[in-house]
Design brief:
Elements lengths: L2 E6 L11 E6 L8 E6 L2 E8 L1 H4 L15 E2 L8 H13 L4 H7 L4 H4 L2 H10 L22 H12 L4 E5 L5 H15 L4 E5 L6 H16 L4 E4 L5 H12 L5 E4 L11 E7 L16 H12 L2 E6 L4 H6 L10 E5 L11 E6 L11 H12 L3 E5 L8 E4 L16 E3 L4 E3 L6 E3 L12 E4 L3 H11 L21 E4 L9 H10 L5 E4 L12 E6 L13 H14 L12 E6 L5 H7 L3 H15 L6 E9 L2 H15 L8 E2 L3 E8 L2 E10 L2 H20 L6 E8 L5
Parallel strand pairs: 6-11, 6-12, 7-9, 7-10, 8-9, 10-11, 13-23, 14-21, 14-22, 20-21, 22-23
Antiparallel strand pairs: 1-2, 1-4, 3-4, 3-5, 15-19, 16-17, 17-18, 24-27, 24-28, 25-27, 26-27
Helix pairs in contact: 2-3, 2-10, 6-7, 18-19
The structure holds adenosine-5'-diphosphate and zinc ion (2 copies).
């Protein structure tokens, strides 16, 4: 007997439309079953979906229904919880469930023939654990500190979700390891998901987890899942997780969609990190989905950070509208006399004009080098100089395709647009007036490295640095940023050079401020962080504070150096409350002050926001589309909804496409969701109307991070 089945396929369309198709099958297929189906002239991967949940639209002509091409044999259907997670994610982020679901599966599932798939499956069969799970007690696990013990105990005795608010180096990772270990011991099937914000951080973490768990549970117990892996690697990890062969999945934001049939614990490390929010397709927040998924599957959720997002901090405030998360505090660093780095503010108003390094900072760096210690200097702008400029006629290195300047990269003498990638060789003379004397304006990491090398040219290494490196050699300044780490393995080798003591001063972008454990760095300096204080983006201060706290956490992780670690901030605003709170390492004070401002201004987390972005050939078309959709929305019920005017985006033009956006805000998340769901149809209709003519694309960003 032929059966009808609903099948999700990949469609680039917007929510609800066109991603659920009907097919015939010889036998009933459970929702979640992976199938191959004909679609137009090709055959594609599909997922059988619950007919009711999918709300298959439109009348179907029984005569026209095609049969499915086949079932991916040997792969168990994705479970109900997974289906619910994907359904929710699609609804909440206003995308089609087909798009979100198919994107959440490893790409190779789409490509492999049945025979190839069988081979992969055979290889991913669970292997027996080398030693019985009763011989464990990971021999290499340290005794927990009292703070760690208390956090672990709270996690074990409460439902959560938890916000583990722990200083850098307070041993948060050790808490995660311990929770995972207890879980695996108690439940022979349980799986844990541990997420980190950046691919770069996964090898470190994987090594630590592997070291802890492989001796007891075997090499297959831990797998990684992130976009830096090859497709075969991704499929392998995915299958290991889906079959339950692996117990621990480590990954970046995409790992939130891993199929884990026995998921019992989710850890989101550095939960404040913006990388958890996707910047394309369904713009989901893996952190927020983690909390949802935890509730859905009865898994405990631990969010960890030294500088939590203000959203999570708010949710963990005891009292009226907070209190949804349980806050666990670990203020002390492990293995040190509880010393956080001393924060020093240099008032740049009293330094020579145009000085990049203030005199006292330069002296401090030299003193550290003389003691055989390392320094780290960071600046959030890569390249040599942000602009090339002609003083005669005023020409600047604008990108012809974007409303942005191209950045001068001296190393290969190019002007590169960091938005569209357009790259040209630096002109010999001003393209506009012929003046040969065009000069860099401003400063990026490349120029900073060069400048610092000059300033330290006369300094020699002391005897004591490391036995491998002779005394008396010139100081080595090295740089780590997106430009120096483009190729696979470069970051690792550069980090290794820092660890080996081969580098005296490390210059870089925020990339070096995150997560890496530099034991011998005793001084960290932020050269010019003031910009964020006056940004139009209301989240800029939060990001700056987090970054500076993280950077300061890089200093003095070695117990021997810990007592004298310093964080330097060069600023024209030394009295600013943000720096005052930083000096006291007082995140709670900073957070309370920010939340007060946000509450008064009705900003998140006290309101919910969504952005609609439109891209078109002209700004008029982009804005016209948004205005038309906004007008059309006003005829329906928009109680509790504020529709702001359409405006150009901060970077208005990229690669010759004009970009506009419109903010939608509501004090109620539910009201905003209802509005957006209804508005989808309006936007689709507007797209088809004259107002949509010339529009390239539009998209909704729910809970946008940058406005
Ligand atoms: P965080 O994740 O909070 O930055 P980690 O868990 O990485 O902190 O711990 C910082 C350092 O302290 C690591 O080198 C770790 O091995 C060590 N450490 C953590 N907990 C303990 C402990 N209970 N006893 C000894 N060393 C510990
Ligand atoms: Zn000129
Ligand atoms: Zn450009």
């Amino acid at each position: 007997m032929k059966q009808w089945v609903c099948v999700l396929v990949q469609t680039p369309a917007h929510a609800a439309l066109g991603s659920v198709l009907s097919y015939q099958s010889d036998r009933p297929l459970a929702p979640g079953t992976l199938v191959r189906v004909p679609l137009g002239k090709r055959e594609t991967l599909g997922v059988v979906w619950d007919a009711d949940a999918a709300q298959a639209t439109g009348e179907v002509d029984p005569g026209k229904i095609k049969s499915i091409a086949g079932v991916l044999e040997g792969i168990a259907p994705l479970n109900t919880a997974w289906q619910s997670l994907l359904t929710f994610a699609a609804q909440y982020y206003q995308r089609s469930v087909g798009e979100v679901t198919l994107a959440a599966l490893p790409p190779q599932l789409r490509e492999l023939s049945p025979v190839q798939m069988q081979r992969r499956l055979a290889r991913s069969k669970p292997k027996p654990t080398p030693t019985g799970p009763d011989t464990l007690q990971g021999a290499n696990a340290p005794c927990l500190t009292p703070e760690q013990n208390s956090a672990v105990e709270q996690i074990q005795t409460n439902p959560g979700p938890f916000l583990l608010f722990g200083a850098t180096g307070s041993g948060k990772t050790e808490v995660y390891l311990h929770c995972v270990q207890t879980l695996l011991e108690r439940d022979p099937n349980a799986q844990a998901l541990v997420m980190v914000p950046e691919i770069n951080l996964t090898p470190q973490l994987e090594a630590r987890f592997r070291q802890r768990f492989a001796p007891t549970y075997g090499d297959d117990a831990v797998v990684s899942l992130h976009s830096g892996m090859t497709n075969p690697q991704r499929l392998k990890s995915w299958l290991a997780s889906h079959t339950g062969a692996t117990r621990i999945v480590l990954g970046t934001r995409m790992a939130i969609f891993a199929s884990m049939p026995t998921l019992r614990l989710i850890v989101v490390d550095e939960e404040h990190d913006p990388s958890y929010k996707s910047g394309e397709g369904a713009r989901y927040s893996a952190r927020d989905l983690a909390v949802y998924r935890g509730r859905l599957e009865g898994a405990k959720v631990v969010l960890g950070s030294a500088t939590p997002s203000l959203e999570s901090w708010h949710h963990s405030r005891p009292g009226a509208d907070g209190g949804r998360y349980l806050r666990l505090h670990m203020p002390s660093r492990v293995g040190q006399a509880d010393t956080l780095p001393l924060v020093r503010r240099v008032d740049m108003n009293h330094q020579p004009r145009n000085a990049v390094f203030s005199i006292p900072l330069l002296e401090a760096i030299k003193a550290r080098i003389a003691r055989g210690e390392q320094c780290m200097v960071f600046l959030n702008r890569r390249g040599y100089a942000p602009v090339l400029h002609c003083a005669d006629c005023g020409w600047k290195s604008e990108c012809p395709h974007c409303s942005a300047y191209r950045v001068f990269h001296k190393i290969d003498r190019t002007l590169r647009c960091h938005h569209c990638g357009f790259t040209e060789r630096v002109p010999r003379a001003c393209p506009s007036c012929g003046n040969p004397d065009i000069a860099p304006l401003g400063r990026g990491t490349e120029r900073l490295e060069e400048h610092l090398t000059e300033l330290l040219a006369d300094v020699r290494r002391p005897d004591s640095v490391s036995p491998e490196f002779p005394a008396g050699v010139p100081v080595r300044v090295a740089r780590i940023d997106a430009d120096t780490t483009r190729l696979r393995g470069e970051l690792e080798s550069q980090l290794a050079a820092v660890h080996a003591g081969d580098v005296d001063v490390l210059v870089g972008t925020q990339m070096i401020a995150k997560g890496h454990d530099f034991r011998r760095i005793s001084l960290v300096a932020a050269i010019n962080p003031d910009g964020a204080l006056f940004s139009s983006d209301f989240r800029a201060p939060e990001r700056l504070f987090g970054l500076l706290m993280q950077a300061s956490g890089r200093a003095g992780r070695d117990a021997a150096l810990g007592t004298s670690a310093e964080m330097w901030v060069q600023t024209f605003q030394p009295a600013h409350p943000l720096y005052a709170a930083l000096k006291r390492h007082d995140y709670p004070a900073f957070a309370e002050q920010q939340l007060k401002e946000r509450s008064q201004a009705g900003l998140p987390p006290f309101s919910a926001q969504a952005l609609v972005r439109a891209e078109a050939r002209t700004q008029d078309i982009a804005q016209g589309f948004l205005r038309a959709a906004s007008e059309a929305a006003k005829s329906s019920d928009i109680a509790q909804i504020t529709l702001y005017p359409a405006v150009p985006m901060t970077i208005q033009r990229i690669a010759n496409i004009e970009r506009a956006q419109m903010l939608v805000e509501s004090p109620s998340r539910a009201a905003l969701q209802r509005f957006l769901t209804g508005w989808q149809t309006v936007l689709q209709t507007t797209r088809q109307s004259p107002a949509g003519k010339g529009l390239v694309r539009w998209a909704i960003d729910v809970d946008p991070l940058a406005i």
